Amino acid sequence: MKNFWDKSQNDDDNERLNHSGFDICQKDSPPFKLKPPLHVTNRERRKQSMKGQSITVLRPGMVLMKGYISSADQVSIVKTCRELGIGDGGFYQPGYSCGRKLQLKMMCLGKNWDPESRMYTELRPFDNSKPLGIPEKLHDMVEKAIQDSNEFIRENVGGSNEGKVIPNMSPDICIAKFYTKSGTLGLHQDKDESEKSIKKGLPVVSFSIGEYAEFIYGETRAANEAEKVILESGDVLIFGGKSRLIYHGVTCILPDTAPASLIEATNLLPGRLNLTFKMF
Ligand code: SIN
Ligand code: MN
Asked: What domains, with CATH codes, occur in the chain?
Protein backbone atom coordinates (compact mmCIF):
# COMPACT_ATOMS: atom_id res chain seq x y z
CA MET A 1 0.00 0.00 0.00
CA LYS A 2 1.29 3.43 -0.90
CA ASN A 3 1.87 5.94 1.81
CA PHE A 4 1.72 9.72 1.42
CA TRP A 5 5.31 10.00 0.24
CA ASP A 6 4.82 7.43 -2.53
CA LYS A 7 2.29 9.57 -4.27
CA SER A 8 3.06 10.22 -7.94
CA GLN A 9 2.55 13.53 -9.70
CA ASN A 10 -0.59 11.94 -11.19
CA ASP A 11 -1.98 11.22 -7.76
CA ASP A 12 -1.25 14.79 -6.78
CA ASP A 13 -3.09 16.06 -9.83
CA ASN A 14 -6.09 13.85 -9.09
CA GLU A 15 -6.15 15.00 -5.52
CA ARG A 16 -5.95 18.61 -6.58
CA LEU A 17 -8.87 18.09 -8.95
CA ASN A 18 -10.94 16.26 -6.35
CA HIS A 19 -10.43 18.91 -3.74
CA SER A 20 -10.44 21.90 -6.00
CA GLY A 21 -13.40 24.05 -6.88
CA PHE A 22 -16.63 23.08 -8.45
CA ASP A 23 -16.67 22.72 -12.22
CA ILE A 24 -19.51 24.61 -13.89
CA CYS A 25 -19.19 22.48 -17.05
CA GLN A 26 -19.75 18.81 -17.72
CA LYS A 27 -16.39 17.16 -18.31
CA ASP A 28 -17.37 15.02 -21.29
CA SER A 29 -19.96 15.54 -23.93
CA PRO A 30 -22.97 13.29 -23.48
CA PRO A 31 -22.47 10.26 -25.77
CA PHE A 32 -25.55 10.93 -27.91
CA LYS A 33 -26.16 14.54 -28.51
CA LEU A 34 -29.21 15.49 -30.55
CA LYS A 35 -28.93 18.61 -32.63
CA PRO A 36 -31.43 21.26 -31.53
CA PRO A 37 -34.54 21.29 -33.76
CA LEU A 38 -34.36 23.63 -36.76
CA HIS A 39 -36.89 26.12 -35.36
CA VAL A 40 -34.76 26.48 -32.22
CA THR A 41 -31.57 27.04 -34.25
CA ASN A 42 -33.39 29.56 -36.46
CA ARG A 43 -34.82 31.40 -33.48
CA GLU A 44 -31.33 31.69 -32.00
CA ARG A 45 -29.90 32.88 -35.33
CA ARG A 46 -32.62 35.52 -35.60
CA LYS A 47 -31.96 36.68 -32.07
CA GLN A 48 -28.25 36.76 -32.85
CA SER A 49 -28.58 38.73 -36.08
CA MET A 50 -30.91 41.28 -34.50
CA LYS A 51 -28.43 41.12 -31.65
CA GLY A 52 -31.66 41.03 -29.58
CA GLN A 53 -30.40 44.20 -28.02
CA SER A 54 -32.54 46.72 -26.26
CA ILE A 55 -31.86 49.05 -23.39
CA THR A 56 -34.42 50.08 -20.79
CA VAL A 57 -34.08 52.45 -17.88
CA LEU A 58 -35.97 50.61 -15.12
CA ARG A 59 -35.64 53.51 -12.68
CA PRO A 60 -33.14 56.35 -12.26
CA GLY A 61 -29.68 54.77 -12.15
CA MET A 62 -30.94 51.29 -13.04
CA VAL A 63 -30.52 50.10 -16.62
CA LEU A 64 -31.31 46.74 -18.19
CA MET A 65 -29.38 45.91 -21.38
CA LYS A 66 -31.12 42.93 -23.00
CA GLY A 67 -28.96 40.67 -25.15
CA TYR A 68 -25.94 42.91 -24.65
CA ILE A 69 -23.33 40.14 -24.39
CA SER A 70 -22.80 38.41 -27.76
CA SER A 71 -23.16 34.62 -27.97
CA ALA A 72 -19.41 34.33 -28.63
CA ASP A 73 -18.60 36.39 -25.54
CA GLN A 74 -21.02 34.33 -23.43
CA VAL A 75 -19.13 31.20 -24.49
CA SER A 76 -15.78 32.77 -23.72
CA ILE A 77 -16.97 33.99 -20.29
CA VAL A 78 -18.17 30.48 -19.37
CA LYS A 79 -14.83 29.02 -20.46
CA THR A 80 -12.88 31.64 -18.52
CA CYS A 81 -14.95 31.08 -15.37
CA ARG A 82 -14.50 27.35 -15.72
CA GLU A 83 -10.73 27.68 -16.04
CA LEU A 84 -10.49 30.00 -13.05
CA GLY A 85 -13.17 28.18 -11.10
CA ILE A 86 -11.60 24.74 -10.87
CA GLY A 87 -8.25 25.98 -9.53
CA ASP A 88 -7.16 27.46 -6.21
CA GLY A 89 -9.54 30.15 -5.05
CA GLY A 90 -12.19 28.75 -7.39
CA PHE A 91 -15.88 27.94 -6.94
CA TYR A 92 -17.04 26.71 -3.55
CA GLN A 93 -20.40 26.32 -1.87
CA PRO A 94 -20.75 28.98 0.79
CA GLY A 95 -22.40 28.03 4.06
CA TYR A 96 -23.14 29.62 7.39
CA SER A 97 -21.76 28.51 10.74
CA CYS A 98 -25.24 27.16 11.59
CA GLY A 99 -24.64 24.61 8.82
CA ARG A 100 -27.03 26.10 6.28
CA LYS A 101 -25.57 26.06 2.76
CA LEU A 102 -26.50 28.46 -0.02
CA GLN A 103 -27.95 26.76 -3.11
CA LEU A 104 -25.24 28.15 -5.32
CA LYS A 105 -21.49 28.03 -5.89
CA MET A 106 -19.42 31.16 -5.63
CA MET A 107 -15.99 32.47 -6.63
CA CYS A 108 -14.56 35.92 -5.98
CA LEU A 109 -12.05 37.66 -8.21
CA GLY A 110 -10.07 40.74 -7.20
CA LYS A 111 -11.12 40.72 -3.54
CA ASN A 112 -12.72 38.02 -1.45
CA TRP A 113 -16.19 38.70 -0.08
CA ASP A 114 -17.33 36.54 2.79
CA PRO A 115 -21.13 36.02 2.80
CA GLU A 116 -21.23 35.31 6.52
CA SER A 117 -19.21 38.24 7.89
CA ARG A 118 -20.20 40.36 4.86
CA MET A 119 -16.66 41.66 4.72
CA TYR A 120 -14.06 41.98 1.99
CA THR A 121 -10.69 40.38 2.64
CA GLU A 122 -7.53 39.87 0.59
CA LEU A 123 -7.48 36.13 1.40
CA ARG A 124 -10.35 33.67 1.59
CA PRO A 125 -10.60 32.78 5.30
CA PHE A 126 -11.42 29.05 5.03
CA ASP A 127 -8.47 28.10 2.81
CA ASN A 128 -6.30 31.23 2.73
CA SER A 129 -6.43 31.28 -1.06
CA LYS A 130 -5.84 34.59 -2.76
CA PRO A 131 -8.53 35.58 -5.24
CA LEU A 132 -7.35 35.65 -8.84
CA GLY A 133 -7.45 38.93 -10.73
CA ILE A 134 -10.32 40.05 -12.94
CA PRO A 135 -9.43 39.17 -16.55
CA GLU A 136 -8.79 42.31 -18.61
CA LYS A 137 -11.43 41.43 -21.17
CA LEU A 138 -14.15 41.30 -18.50
CA HIS A 139 -12.91 44.53 -16.99
CA ASP A 140 -13.17 46.25 -20.40
CA MET A 141 -16.63 44.82 -21.05
CA VAL A 142 -17.88 46.30 -17.78
CA GLU A 143 -16.53 49.77 -18.57
CA LYS A 144 -17.99 49.60 -22.08
CA ALA A 145 -21.42 48.56 -20.75
CA ILE A 146 -21.49 51.59 -18.43
CA GLN A 147 -20.47 53.90 -21.31
CA ASP A 148 -23.11 52.41 -23.62
CA SER A 149 -25.83 52.74 -21.02
CA ASN A 150 -24.92 56.39 -20.50
CA GLU A 151 -24.91 57.03 -24.22
CA PHE A 152 -28.42 55.59 -24.33
CA ILE A 153 -29.56 57.73 -21.40
CA ARG A 154 -28.14 60.92 -22.94
CA GLU A 155 -29.80 60.23 -26.28
CA ASN A 156 -33.13 58.86 -25.13
CA VAL A 157 -34.09 60.07 -21.72
CA GLY A 158 -35.69 63.50 -21.75
CA GLY A 159 -34.89 66.44 -19.48
CA SER A 160 -31.59 67.20 -17.85
CA ASN A 161 -29.14 64.36 -17.43
CA GLU A 162 -28.54 65.29 -13.84
CA GLY A 163 -28.86 62.28 -11.56
CA LYS A 164 -29.66 60.06 -14.53
CA VAL A 165 -26.29 59.07 -15.94
CA ILE A 166 -24.39 56.31 -14.20
CA PRO A 167 -20.99 57.11 -12.67
CA ASN A 168 -18.07 55.39 -14.34
CA MET A 169 -16.09 52.87 -12.37
CA SER A 170 -13.19 50.49 -12.80
CA PRO A 171 -14.17 47.19 -11.13
CA ASP A 172 -11.83 45.65 -8.59
CA ILE A 173 -14.34 43.06 -7.36
CA CYS A 174 -16.10 40.35 -9.32
CA ILE A 175 -18.36 37.87 -7.57
CA ALA A 176 -19.24 34.91 -9.76
CA LYS A 177 -22.20 32.80 -8.73
CA PHE A 178 -23.40 29.60 -10.29
CA TYR A 179 -27.03 28.97 -9.38
CA THR A 180 -28.25 25.42 -9.67
CA LYS A 181 -31.86 24.82 -10.75
CA SER A 182 -33.06 25.42 -7.19
CA GLY A 183 -30.79 28.40 -6.56
CA THR A 184 -32.32 31.57 -5.12
CA LEU A 185 -30.98 34.71 -3.46
CA GLY A 186 -33.00 36.63 -0.87
CA LEU A 187 -33.70 40.36 -1.16
CA HIS A 188 -30.65 42.30 -0.02
CA GLN A 189 -28.69 45.49 -0.64
CA ASP A 190 -25.08 45.53 -1.84
CA LYS A 191 -23.66 47.73 0.90
CA ASP A 192 -20.39 46.14 1.97
CA GLU A 193 -18.23 48.23 -0.34
CA SER A 194 -16.48 51.39 0.87
CA GLU A 195 -18.57 54.32 2.05
CA LYS A 196 -16.99 56.43 -0.66
CA SER A 197 -17.95 54.00 -3.42
CA ILE A 198 -21.54 53.79 -2.24
CA LYS A 199 -21.84 57.54 -1.66
CA LYS A 200 -20.65 58.21 -5.19
CA GLY A 201 -23.20 55.68 -6.47
CA LEU A 202 -20.53 53.68 -8.28
CA PRO A 203 -22.58 51.05 -10.08
CA VAL A 204 -23.02 47.36 -9.60
CA VAL A 205 -22.78 45.71 -13.03
CA SER A 206 -24.24 42.25 -13.40
CA PHE A 207 -23.83 39.77 -16.29
CA SER A 208 -26.29 36.89 -16.70
CA ILE A 209 -25.38 33.74 -18.62
CA GLY A 210 -27.15 30.39 -18.96
CA GLU A 211 -30.65 29.76 -17.63
CA TYR A 212 -32.95 32.70 -17.08
CA ALA A 213 -33.60 34.12 -13.63
CA GLU A 214 -36.59 35.82 -12.13
CA PHE A 215 -35.01 38.89 -10.57
CA ILE A 216 -36.86 41.16 -8.15
CA TYR A 217 -35.97 44.65 -7.00
CA GLY A 218 -37.51 47.41 -4.93
CA GLU A 219 -37.12 50.30 -2.51
CA THR A 220 -37.72 48.14 0.55
CA ARG A 221 -37.15 44.63 1.82
CA ALA A 222 -40.81 43.76 1.17
CA ALA A 223 -40.73 41.05 -1.49
CA ASN A 224 -44.47 41.42 -2.21
CA GLU A 225 -43.94 45.05 -3.26
CA ALA A 226 -40.93 44.35 -5.45
CA GLU A 227 -40.82 44.72 -9.23
CA LYS A 228 -39.99 41.68 -11.30
CA VAL A 229 -37.86 41.26 -14.40
CA ILE A 230 -36.53 38.21 -16.24
CA LEU A 231 -32.78 38.17 -16.76
CA GLU A 232 -31.86 36.11 -19.81
CA SER A 233 -28.54 34.81 -21.05
CA GLY A 234 -26.54 37.77 -22.34
CA ASP A 235 -28.37 40.44 -20.33
CA VAL A 236 -26.49 43.10 -18.39
CA LEU A 237 -28.11 44.87 -15.47
CA ILE A 238 -26.60 48.00 -14.00
CA PHE A 239 -27.64 49.72 -10.80
CA GLY A 240 -25.79 52.76 -9.60
CA GLY A 241 -26.40 56.43 -8.83
CA LYS A 242 -29.80 56.81 -7.15
CA SER A 243 -30.41 53.04 -7.38
CA ARG A 244 -27.11 51.95 -5.89
CA LEU A 245 -28.73 50.66 -2.71
CA ILE A 246 -31.77 49.09 -4.30
CA TYR A 247 -32.97 45.86 -2.69
CA HIS A 248 -32.65 42.97 -5.11
CA GLY A 249 -32.77 39.18 -5.22
CA VAL A 250 -33.36 36.11 -7.36
CA THR A 251 -36.62 34.23 -6.76
CA CYS A 252 -36.06 31.33 -9.16
CA ILE A 253 -34.10 29.97 -12.08
CA LEU A 254 -36.26 29.06 -15.09
CA PRO A 255 -35.34 25.52 -16.10
CA ASP A 256 -34.22 24.62 -19.64
CA THR A 257 -33.97 28.20 -20.83
CA ALA A 258 -30.24 28.43 -21.57
CA PRO A 259 -29.45 28.93 -25.28
CA ALA A 260 -28.84 25.55 -26.93
CA SER A 261 -25.81 26.96 -28.75
CA LEU A 262 -24.22 28.00 -25.44
CA ILE A 263 -24.69 24.53 -23.95
CA GLU A 264 -23.35 22.94 -27.11
CA ALA A 265 -20.23 25.11 -27.14
CA THR A 266 -19.46 24.90 -23.43
CA ASN A 267 -21.15 21.85 -21.88
CA LEU A 268 -22.38 24.21 -19.16
CA LEU A 269 -24.28 22.36 -16.43
CA PRO A 270 -27.97 23.22 -15.95
CA GLY A 271 -28.00 26.49 -14.03
CA ARG A 272 -27.18 30.16 -14.26
CA LEU A 273 -23.89 31.99 -14.11
CA ASN A 274 -23.99 35.52 -12.73
CA LEU A 275 -20.99 37.81 -12.58
CA THR A 276 -21.38 40.90 -10.44
CA PHE A 277 -18.75 43.62 -10.73
CA LYS A 278 -18.21 46.50 -8.32
CA MET A 279 -15.52 48.88 -7.14
CA PHE A 280 -14.58 48.78 -3.49
C1 SIN B 1 -26.24 39.33 -6.42
O2 SIN B 1 -26.99 40.23 -6.07
O3 SIN B 1 -25.26 39.03 -5.76
C4 SIN B 1 -26.50 38.56 -7.68
C5 SIN B 1 -27.74 38.90 -8.38
C6 SIN B 1 -27.99 37.99 -9.56
O7 SIN B 1 -27.68 36.81 -9.49
O8 SIN B 1 -28.56 38.46 -10.56
MN1 MN C 1 -26.41 41.76 -4.67
From this structure: 20-157+164-278 (2.60.120.590)
